[in-house]
Amino acid sequence: MPKEASFLASSIGKKIVMAVTGIMLVGFVVGHMAGNLQLYLPAHGGEHPLDAYGHFLRTMLHGAGIWIARGGLLVAALLHIWAAVTLTKMNMEARPVAYKEVKSQASTLASRSMRVSGFIVLSFLVFHLLHLTLGKIGPFEEGKVFQNVVQGFQSPVISGFYILAMVCLFGHLRHGVWSMLQTLGLSHPSYNTLRDRLAFGVALLVVGANISFPLAVLAGFVKL
Ligand code: HEM
To answer: Which of 13, 18, 46, 127 would disulfide-bridge 83, Cβ 3.0–4.6 Å?
Structure first.
């Protein structure tokens, strides 16, 4: 296969991997945000709905369900990062001299900011798992999901970090959903506005709700 054709085939393959794993990850953040909206529900019979939801997730399919979901998510996240890193390397090797034109600089800026925001979201995830799954940051009681979230967000430092990370998630989701739709075929110029609106809407929905959680706790609207 000529060099250009194999470059193109490999690049398209990796973009498809990014798009398909991107759908799985976006599906997770939308579902996770929807589940977390239960933070706004009142306690029921001594138990908060968020605690019951956490218990359901940990015990579904006799405890196997959560491990299947964790395995699927981990594979999707690793493939997503692998495709991003190898695509970046391929593009850099193919063009060792930096672009000079303004048009090209715009697309380089978009992909560079995806790498930066992707790294910040990944760092957030490590912090988040240490905080609310493993209980290594701040007060934590196994199974008391509502209490752990509220006590965590009562700290302005923890809340501030979540809000900052969510701003990065907004940029990552907006551009990511936009490119994903393009890779999966919605690439005709007549779909540009629809693609922009869909990407903006998904990012705003997820990030708007996620930012509302720490703000609602800090404002005293949600309390123990
Ligand atoms: C303010 C926004 C968020 C809140 C309030 C929140 C809340 C929580 C809580 C309470 C848990 C523990 C659930 C349990 O033990 O039952 C959890 C786990 C988790 N969260 Fe979040 N989350 C938020 C944002 C995110 C985001 C943006 C991501 C992804 C980028 C994410 C990814 C995860 C993952 C992967 C787990 C571990 C699930 C597991 O394997 O047990 N979260 N989250």
So the answer is: 18
Dist. CA 192–CA 204, nearest whole Å: 18
Domain locations in the chain?
3-218
Whether the CB of 70 sits within 6 Å of ligand 1: yes
What is the Cα gyration radius of the chain?
A: 20
The protein residue with its alpha carbon nearest to ligand 1, atom 36, reads 129
| Model pLDDT for residues 82-115, shown as the tens digit of each residue | 999 999 898 888 865 555 554 556 566 777 899 9
**Nearest residue (CA) to ligand 1, atom 19:** 129
Q: Which CA distances in Å does 151 have to 1, 47, 224?
A: 59, 17, 8
Architecture of domain 3-218: Up-down Bundle (1.20)
- Digit-coded pLDDT (tens) for 163-210: 999 999 999 999 999 999 999 888 888 889 999 999 999 999 999 999
The CA distance from 219 to 201, in Å, is 26
More confident residue, 93 or 51: 51
Closest CA to 16 of 79, 72, 75: 79
Asked if residue 101 lies in contact with residue 42, where contact means CB atoms within 8 angstroms, the answer is no
How many beta carbons lie within 10 A of that of residue 160, not counting itself?
12
Q: Which long-range contacts (CB under 8 A, 24 or more apart) does 101-110 make?
A: 110/175
